Amino acid sequence: MPPPVSTTVGSNGRGPTAADEAYARLREDIVRGRLMPNQRLVEVDLAVTLGVGRTAVRTVLARLEQEGLVVHEPNRGARVRMVTEAEALEITQARGALEALAAREAAEKATPAEVAFMRETLAQMSACLKAGDLLAYSDGNARMHAKIIESSRHSTATRLIAGLKAQMVRFQYRTVLVPGRSARSLVEHTRIVDAIEAADPDAAEAAMRYHLSHVADTLREMTSAHAQHRASPPHLVHF
Predict the structure, then answer these.
(1) Which of 35, 103, 162, 221 would be a feasible disulfide site paired with 208, CB 3.0-4.6 Å?
(2) Given CA atoms 209, 214, 220, 226 in this order, what sign does their dihedral have?
(3) Which residues belong to any copy of the HTH gntR-type domain (predicted)?
């Protein structure tokens, strides 16, 4: 059995409870894809893994259900929620509005060090693209968006975006694998960073909206293609 989760109290007299830390650990496992969509979440197993009691596990699962990461079914228990392709499209559209706001705020508030980080990330993304390492490119993309959101210093947008992105783990790498999409994505990110560095909030907002509208278009095309594939009759394969 793993050691119990630490409940050390901070110097301010308050600190995370065991349930808080268990929540953070389980949420991270879902967001990072360590727990797969539709995977069952058994209370007894989670209590052992997280080092907390079953009451704390129920509290954790209830919080994750509120975030849309877990679904609870009567007489069947909890499981990791499966986000459909249609939902992924809606989430991306909602992100477009929120991240456009974040980009606008970042253009007004980003520090030189934050802009330098964005420039360095662009260079890394470009190198990954040239090397054909699309998964590493996608990781750079995630770092870029995280830095822009952080630079916005808009706590409400940051919280809402985090909740939306947490549900998108199954689709994290899909769009960059579409032929030609990564090259266009790099150009779009460059325009966003250019606008932020120029302290042009209108241009930054427009560039982010343009970028995420294209991501949504790609998801829409993928969804349509998958639907057509499922509807088509099976093909004979000759070996």
Answers:
(1) 103
(2) negative
(3) 16-83
- Give me Rg for the CA atoms of the chain: 21
pLDDT of 12 above 50:
no
Q: How far apart are CA 22 and CA 102, in angstroms?
A: 30
Total residue length of the chain: 239
Instruction: Give CA–CA dist 147/143, Å, rounded.
Output: 6
CATH number at residue 120: 1.20.120.530
Burial letters 159-196, b for 16+ CB under 10 A, else e = ebbeebbbbbbbbbbbbbebeebbeebbebbbbbbbbb
Q: Which band of pLDDT confidence, cut at 50, 70 and 90, is reported for residue 83?
A: confident
Segment 153-174, tens digit of pLDDT: 999 999 999 888 877 765 655 6
Number of H helices and number of E strands within the chain? 9, 3
Give the Cα separation of 203 and 127 in Å (integer): 26
| CATH (domain of 71) | 1.10.10.10
- Return contacts of 121-128, CB within 8 angstroms, 24+ apart: 121/147, 122/186, 122/189, 122/190, 122/193, 125/186, 125/189, 126/186
